[in-house]
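If you are new to this repository, start here. Below is one unmodified record pulled from the training split, so you can see the exact layout before writing a loader.
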Amino acid sequence: MKISALLTSAGINTGLCVLLFSLYSILRKYPGNVNVYFGRRLAQEHIKHSDPFCFDRFVPSPSWIVKAWETSEEEILAIAGLDAVVFLRIIVFSIRIFSIAATICILLVLPLNYYGQEMHHKQIPSESLDVFTIGNVKEGSKWYDLQFSCGTVIQVKN
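And here is the target side for that same chain:
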C-alpha cells in the first residue's frame, strides 16, 4: 500500500465524518424526529414546537457538540441512566489509552522504523508502508532495543 493511498483514504473518511455530523445536525431539528432525540424530555415536559417552515432547520449547527461536552455525569445519569455513564467512561478511557499509544508510536516508533536500516528513501508519498514496520529494523541493533522499550512503555501504560 502506498502512503498517498493511505492519506487519500484518511481524507475520504474525514469528509464522510463531516457529512454525517452535518446530517445529524440538520435531522435532529426536524419536528418528526423530536420523539427520537428528545423522548425522555418530551415525556417529562411539553416542548414547544417551532414553525415547520423555519430556515434554521436546514442549516447544520455544531451547538449540540458543545452541549454534549458540557454535560456532567450526574446529568447523564439522571437523563439516560447508569448504562450511558458506564459506556461514556469506557469511551473516555479508550481515548486516553489510544492517545498515549498514538503519541509514542508517531513520535518514536515510526521514525525509528523508517530509519532502521541504511537505505535510500524515495519521497515519502511514493513509498510503500513496509518501510514503517519493525521488519525494517535489524535485529540486535540499538534501534531494535529502543523499539522494544517503546512497546514495553505502551504495554505498561495500558
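Two things worth knowing about this chain: The helical segments are 3-27, 34-37, 39-44, 63-70, 73-80, 82-114, 142-157. The chain has a mean pLDDT of 79.
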